[in-house]
Amino acid sequence: MKLLFEVPSDELLFVNSDSISFASFSISYIVYKNEESKTVIDSGITYYTQSKLEGNDGRIRGGFVFFAPDSMNHVMRVDFTDQNRRQSVTDFVNLDRTGIQPESKFMLVDVANNTPIIRNHNDREIAVSITQQGGGAPRPVFMRYFKGRYLIADPPFSDNPQKVLSYAADESYLVGTDEVDPIVLSAPGIYHFQYDTLVPEGYTFFIFNEDFPRLTNINGLIESVRYLTTQEEFSRINSSRNIKAAIDEFWLSKAGNRERARELIKAYYTRVQTANRLFSSYMEGWKTDRGLIYVIFGSPGTVYRSTDTETWLYSQTTGQPTLSFVFEKKRNPFTSNDYMLRRSSYFDIPWYRAVETWRDGRIYNDSY
Fold first, then answer.
1. Which one, 140, 164, 178, 333, has least CB within 10 Å?
2. What is the CA angle 336-118-87, rounded to 5?
3. Exposure string (b/e) for 15-36, b if CB count within 10 Å is 16 or more?
4. 196, 193, 186, 200: which is closest to 147 by C-alpha?
5. CA–CA dist 297, 92 (Å, integer)
6. How many CB atoms sit inside 10 A of residue 287's CB?
7. How far apart are CA 118 and CA 338, in angstroms?
8. Which residue, among 295, 294, 274, 4, has the nearest Cα to 133 in the 3D structure?
9. Residue from 146, 368, 210 nearest 275 by CA
């Protein structure tokens, strides 16, 4: 198999050498048998050097080949290190090697610059072609479209029935293979590519709001503050003639002064943006259960992962037990990043305590 990567060049540190600026980074990986196993299937490290003279779209692209046996689901740990900064970030990639049409069988290509699309989402209209990986004669490909308007997560103590994700497509098209005209993905929603529609798996591409994962439009700024508002406050903001002024007034009323309001706004919407980057599934990350907890409670102190769960631990004040949120991984043909919180009435008091902290003009878990 081959893992493709894309790095925004403005996130790397370039240093001068012989009048040319260079960035230097490495990517190391370990393929494990599964989440719980310490059995290593493959590992490696590759070093890269890039000058600012190369490329002109602000992105550095590449890839490396690794081994992962068929008929199993593996997990890959990837460590990206900016060698000039001596800073690293770690991510985990789920490798689905089962089924007849896992997402690794398909690849979208941006026809504007003839480059593979590595992210599984975009924030605006894009023209693509689709290729099939793994050899063999190309087969006709069906594209199923889902409008993708989903409600935000319920509070962690809610006893409302769990939301059921519908797999009934709003539209369906036969889009063919590489030889056909470009496919234009324009409307926000879910685009699911398959050559066998009787099997739920396939490759999925999402169109989210403009400038995703950032929030730059007023609707996103209002919608995402719903976790902190009463129903009356939210309705008043939405029905205001000047919505921008109404949302500003909400934050100012909680903070007490403009300087503090700016700090609250920065902290809150930074968490929303981070949730979009980390937890997006078939909907924007901040709307998911993990996004809900992350936005209100901040980064967990400890995270435990298994094949089927994530457990987030938060330390509380002296005399109170550690707060533990358990998220169960859901089988979902659109994404491997869909987790649902085990809700409990126990979370009632911690939730309202955290929300009231925000509403009192203070950042809960001030480590954004």
1. 164
2. 90
3. eeeeeeebbbbebbbbbbbebe
4. 186
5. 23
6. 23
7. 19
8. 4
9. 368
Tokens of 344: 């409990």
Instruction: With CA atoms as reference, report the closest residue to 326 among 338, 312, 337.
Output: 312
Partners of 122 in the beta sheet? Answer: 207
The SS3 assignment for 289 reads: helix
Of 47, 26, 30, 48, the C-alpha closest to 39 is 30
Please, which residues have CB within 8 angstroms of residue 213's CB and are 6 or more apart in sequence? 273, 276, 277, 280, 284, 285
Per-domain boundaries in the chain: 1-98
What is the arithmetic mean of pLDDT over 85-113?
86
What torsion, rounded to 10 degrees, do the Cα atoms 234, 236, 240, 242 define?
-60
**69-73, 120-124, 210-214, 355-359: least confidently modelled range:** 69-73
The CATH T-level fold of domain 1-98 is Immunoglobulin-like (2.60.40)
Of 44-58, 133-147, 216-230, the range with the highest mean pLDDT is 216-230
pTM here is: 0.87
Contact criterion met (CB below 8 Å) for 364 and 326: no
The 10 Å Cβ neighbour count of residue 278 is 15
Q: Where is 364: in which H helix or E strand?
A: none
Instruction: Specify the length of the chain in residues.
Output: 368
Q: Which residue has the higher pLDDT, 139 or 326?
A: 326
For the stretch 106-112, contacts whose Cβ atoms lie closer than 8 Å and that sit 24 or more positions apart, written own/partner, are 106/130, 106/131, 106/132, 106/133, 106/141, 106/193, 106/202, 106/203, 107/131, 107/132, 107/133, 107/203, 108/203, 108/205, 111/182
The Cα-based distances of 347 to 227, 281, 352, 357 in angstroms read 15, 24, 9, 15
**Measured between alpha carbons, how far is residue 278 from residues 25, 75, 286, 295 in Å?**
22, 17, 9, 12
